[in-house]
Structure formats: structure tokens, C-alpha cells
């Protein structure tokens, strides 16, 4: 009974208990895999940062080289352009505060100012030496129409900074009545030059040359820029029409 126990004990003593064969190898492999994956992730992070930096640099270069866009869409000629509709943000800025640059035009007192200006011009030209009714009315007509064109159709923007520059691309005529056509004010400002044309031609006795001159001035400068056909239209003549804007 004693010998088998000794044999079993000796056999158990002869057994060389070793750890699981792949334990150390898996630990080493896992560590190496983790290290390689961390290295790869670090490389990817560095590559992403470099790509973002290059993208930002390229974007800044593009923005610096890209010309300023004023919402004007070019047509068949580089001389003629058309102002595109405002963006949603610009429309909100336009409606945030009443546009004091154009609201005064709707008042009845503003209508009377036009007659006062015409009367003062007529008196001024009558006082010039050698003035005649024919030439005084012709000069009154021309001065009023040219001054009206410069004020309402040439200068863009507003002298007030309440709308965040939302009206910088629009003339005063385009700012009136929120660009609504054929309002009472717009009709009055269209009819007045035509009435002035009839008065000028009447006192000029419908002389052929003065009739042609007054008609061209009234129609091309006083009436055509107010029509819907020329709404938001821009005609740029190099050396003649430059950047006229209130900012």
C-alpha cells in the first residue's frame, strides 16, 4: 500500500508544471499590437492636423486672391451688370430698422421740395446776364434732371449705419417703398420730369434743336432709369462712371 503512493508522488514530482504556452506570447503580441496601433493613431492624428492646416492655408489664400463680390450678375457685356436679390441675412438687416434715407420721400412735404427747387433754379437762371426764357427753362430742365439722376440713380448706399450695410448696393430710387413699383411717390417722380419737358418745350416754342435736346435729357436721364426695365441695372463706363457710394 505504501509503494503505489510513493510512485504517484514521485510521478507527480516529475511533472513539470508550466504556464499556458501562449500566455507570454499573447501578452507580448498584444503589447506590440497596442504600441503599433497607438503609433498609427498618432500618425493619423498628425496627418489630419497637417491636412487641416494646409486646407486653412489654401482657404486663406483663396479668400485673399478672390475679388470682392457685390451681388452683381454679369450679362452678355462686361459693361452691363444686374444686382442680384439680397440674401436672407441682408433682408433681415434691411427690415430691422426703417431706412431713413428713403422714408422721407413718401411725405407730401417732400413732393413740394421739387417744385421749390425748380422755382429757385428758374429764378437763378433768369438773373444771369443775357438770359432768355428759352435758355432759362432749358438750363433749369437740365440742371434739375442731372441733379435728380446723381442723387437718386448714381449714388448707392445710405449715410446712416443702422442696417449693417444692407443697402450698400442699392441706389436711393431702389430703396424707395421697399422696391415696390408704381407707388404714388414713384408715379409722381416719373410724371414730374415729363411735365417739366412740356413746359420747357412750350417756352422754347418747340424749336427743333432745343426740342431734341430737352427730350433726350428728360427721357434718357429722367425717365428711363425709373422704369422697371432698368431696375437694379448697372451700366459701367470706364473713366466716366466710377464707384459712387455712401458708406
Automatic annotation (TrEMBL):
Keywords: Membrane, Transmembrane, Transmembrane helix. This is Similar to Saccharomyces cerevisiae YGR038W ORM1 Evolutionarily conserved protein, similar to Orm2p, required for resistance to agents that induce unfolded protein response. Residues 1-11 have a biased composition (Polar residues). It is a multi-pass membrane protein. It comes from Maudiozyma barnettii. Signal peptide: none annotated. The chain crosses the membrane at residues 109-128, 134-152, 188-204, 210-229. InterPro entries: ORMDL. GO terms for cellular component: endoplasmic reticulum membrane. It is found in: Membrane.
Amino acid at each position: 500500500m505504501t509503494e503505489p503512493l510513493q510512485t504517484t508522488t514521485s510521478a507527480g514530482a516529475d511533472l513539470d508544471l508550466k504556464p499556458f504556452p501562449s500566455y507570454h506570447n499573447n501578452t507580448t503580441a498584444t503589447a506590440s499590437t497596442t504600441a503599433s496601433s497607438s503609433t498609427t493613431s498618432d500618425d493619423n492624428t498628425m496627418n489630419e492636423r497637417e491636412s487641416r492646416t494646409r486646407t486653412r492655408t489654401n482657404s486663406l489664400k483663396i479668400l485673399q486672391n478672390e475679388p470682392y463680390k457685390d451681388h452683381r450678375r454679369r450679362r452678355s457685356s462686361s459693361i452691363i451688370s444686374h444686382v442680384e436679390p439680397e440674401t436672407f441675412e441682408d433682408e433681415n438687416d434691411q427690415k430691422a430698422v426703417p431706412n431713413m434715407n428713403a422714408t422721407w420721400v413718401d411725405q407730401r412735404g417732400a413732393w413740394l421740395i421739387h417744385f421749390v427747387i425748380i422755382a429757385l433754379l428758374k429764378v437763378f437762371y433768369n438773373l444771369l446776364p443775357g438770359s432768355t426764357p428759352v435758355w432759362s427753362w432749358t438750363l433749369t430742365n437740365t440742371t434739375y434732371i442731372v441733379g435728380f439722376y446723381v442723387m437718386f440713380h448714381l449714388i448707392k448706399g445710405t449715410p446712416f449705419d443702422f442696417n449693417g450695410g444692407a443697402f450698400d448696393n442699392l441706389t436711393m430710387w431702389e430703396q424707395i417703398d421697399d422696391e415696390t413699383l408704381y407707388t404714388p411717390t414713384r408715379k409722381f417722380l416719373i410724371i414730374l420730369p415729363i411735365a417739366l419737358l412740356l413746359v420747357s418745350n412750350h417756352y422754347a416754342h418747340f424749336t427743333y434743336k432745343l426740342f431734341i435736346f430737352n427730350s433726350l435729357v428728360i427721357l434718357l436721364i429722367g425717365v428711363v432709369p425709373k422704369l422697371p426695365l432698368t431696375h437694379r441695372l448697372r451700366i459701367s463706363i470706364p473713366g466716366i462712371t466710377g464707384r459712387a457710394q455712401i458708406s
